[in-house]
Amino acid sequence: MKKNKDDIGMELLTILPADRIKTRYIDLVTYGSDAGFYYLLPRAVVQPVSEAEVVALFDFSHRHRVPLVFRAGGTSLSGQSITDGILVEIGRYWRKVRVIDDGRLVQVGPGITGAMVNAHLKPHGRKIGPDPSSIASALMGGILSNNSSGMCCGVAGNSYHTTRSVRFILPNGKTFDTSDPGEHERFEKECPQVFGELRELRDSVLSDASLRGKIRDKYKIKNTVGYSLNAFLDYTHPLDITAHLLIGGEGTLGFIAGAVLETLPQYRYRSTALVYFPHLHAACEAIVPLRETGAEAVELMDRASLRAIEHIPRVPPVIGSLPSSAAALLVEFQDDSEQGLRAKIDGFSARVPGLLLLQPPEFTTDRNEQELLWKVRKGLFPSVGAVRKSGTTVILEDIAFPLDRLGDALTALRALFDKHGYADAIVFGHAKDGNIHFVITQSFHTDADVTRYDRFIRELVTLVVNRFGGALKAEHGTGRNMAPFVETEWGGEAYAIMQRLKRCIDPDNLLNPGVIISGDGEAHIRDIKQLPSVEREVDKCIECGYCEQVCPSRDLTMTPRRRIVARRVLQLLETNGDKENHKRLLEQYRYDGLETCAVDGLCSTACPVDINTGDLVKRLRKENHSVWGKRVALVVAKNFRVTEWIVGMGIRIGSGMNRAFGRMTMTRLTGTMRKVVSRMPVWPVELGAVSAMPRGVIDHKGSGGPGSSVVYFPACVSRIMTVKGHSVMDAMISVSRKAGIELLLPETVRGACCGQLFSSKGFGEAFAYTSNRIVGYLWEVSRQGELPVVTDISSCAYTLLHAPFRDTLDEENRRRYDKLRILDSVDFLHDLVLPLADGVRRTEDVVLHPVCSLQKMNTTDKLVSVARHFARSVNVPMQAGCCGMAGDRGFLFPELTASATCDEASEARPGQYDGYYSSAVTCELALTQAVGKDYVSVLFLADRAMG
């Protein structure tokens, strides 16, 4: 008998604390989805922090006959990280990484991203072997469990072949670590049945020459169908065999608690090109020459996939003029020396005359151009998904063929698309390894839709396995969508071995049931995710999860993906007339989805199709505002000088109370008031008041050169608050004086505002009024755009420079706006001050917090450059991200900033650095609280170094 979620939640309290057991409706429905096209509603979501808790969960699963599924990043595409049982989410508490032997080895936990592991290895010139396109969001638990490979690693550098040792827990609760020699003997004693069965299976494989040959042949190309049977040939002891069966086991045999991986060289020099061919066959003929001349990556893109990305800014314009049959290869050569790199390229160039190309290849070593080409390639799948018809599902399959049959196989595949009506299908993939991905879109609203997909998949299986001797899954894992066809690919004898493995290690079939081994011949067409039409941001999203790792609220409430899933579920509930659950989800969404979203927009920088969930949240906030609330916001905007005075006076009074009665006075007082008034802002201990407002023209003359005079527009927060008394305005004035730049500070600046306050809260009318007013004001004080305008808060600069700001302007103010030159304080330092700042004293080792506005404006490099000019050494934490302050959001929800800054603060430890710098007062407040050291504007660094 199934237990309901409330019963399960209560019983799980014997294992985990309540805050790590999620049974609220909003958690269940949003965790029910991953990057694949299947959907199951879990009965509970849990977040263990230790191996002991995982062991207890295995025991709970067996006692209550409840399935257990481990979920890492949820970027899997084949339905292997969803369940209708207990979902064990490991992305928060398992982020261990330790570099060993100067980077030749690396120890990882299952909850850290592959990109973060590579960031730790980068100083050593190393990287992990697997390099999936989702590496920035895929966690190591999933990378190992799915035997991930990717763009460059081929077969030899995949997860299986680069795993040195594994620490794992079996469903029986036994924990083993293959790095300990004594574990082999203990495995035999404590798991005699598993030990004996695996030994028998190995003997049967070794005694069957035909089966041995099949296994070796299957793994000459990429293959993740079924279990890693090559473990029986590559390893002798059942413990080592078990460990490598877990690699690619998709979480069906045990839990990978950690692993040690061998790393690969990270080559210093790269050269990249898009090479164009008249048709797919011609592109396939170039693969072997590229492999033989040492190409590290050879990525195939057919004309349909190129068409999907030809509109992206800065994409080579030739793509738009390619013939309809064309194809391209994204080629990259890598080496540790420029000479070695050139030799590889010359080797390929010598073979170009024998190939059929549309034009000679043009290789580039420009990092920005290379990043663009790779961004285009990695974003193909989501890009197609974003332009699909609303309400349809995007499906990505990956297959592999022997290289000598690739061209013919692709021709047959295209014919299969045409036969089943997938005219919009695209083909791309890792051509060097014969690994091909294809994307199709269709709806699943009717039985006819489902039947169409079923027939297509069954014919695809025949094409891949029987006609061309390929693999049904090359790197994405078997999952649910190929589970019915594992026996078709491997044959009855090999499949029987896989079935025995599953029964032996997981006899009750409670660990990720239905994945890899399935008795349901129609598993691939069950539990398909429904995608109703909702909003433009929601409809574009394919739930790939790329956005999650940059979201400041990911460890507190929700991520952009989960916010979007909730919107879809709300629409489905409304359509189905489920008023009770609709109301419940809407109420829970208010805090999780709306109030704790920082609307920082970093999700759009990680999203391959630029979805800004912050814009969606702003619009939803706007829709929730009452008419009265909108009127009040407009009154505040029209009387902002009075508002500024009131807030400034409040901060001065509060600061005075702290001086008189102790520094924690206001924090305690506002904390107590918050218990009664939930929207009461909490006073940060570090918050201080501006003692005096400078007036007029600062009394020094410019150098007379370009940029010698600028208009200074201090942001409203700079005019009223400080971090422990550090006034940004004082620093700006002092730096300008030392650089010989005339700084014009209008006496009328009080009451001027960029409008960010109203934009972030969704008060559109107030924002429009403020934006038009500030443009008129800046037009006047800048002498009709003659002088550049400098503002000292990066988020305010971003607001002024961001496209939605211009959209709110009337026609006259648009003309004015287009003639204004607006600089952030970082631009000011980099563009105007650095050329004048000679003979500086570099005495500080500093750490930086690049605020999210800099990341969105692509000026983080400028901040680093400025810091390197004025400091002895500069560090940017690997986990630096949005602090969650979001203007006033951190005052209202301090738990958001505490969660958002936790990882970054662990890197910026006190005592390691002399100075801590950023470029926004409110963000500096958040980091000061998190780290315990004073974060201040980078202007202070420049001021101190300039003497």
Spell out the key features of this protein:
947 residues; alpha/beta; Vanillyl-alcohol Oxidase, Chain A, domain 3; six-stranded antiparallel β-sheet; 26 strands; 45% helix
What does this structure look like?
With 947 residues, the protein is of the alpha/beta class. Among the domains are: 208 residues, 3-Layer(aba) Sandwich (Vanillyl-alcohol Oxidase, Chain A, domain 3), CATH 3.40.462.40; 80 residues, no CATH class; 192 residues, no CATH class; 106 residues. It is 45% helix and 13% strand. The chain is built from 44 helices and 26 strands. The strands form six sheets. Strands 5, 6, 7, 8, 9 and 10 form a six-stranded antiparallel beta sheet that branches. Helix 2 packs across helix 23, helix 23 packs antiparallel against helix 24 and helix 37 crosses helix 39. The chain is globular, with a radius of gyration of 30 Å. It starts with a helix and ends with a helix.
Quick structural overview:
With 947 residues, the protein is α/β, with parallel strands linked by helices. 45% of the residues lie in helices and 13% in strands.
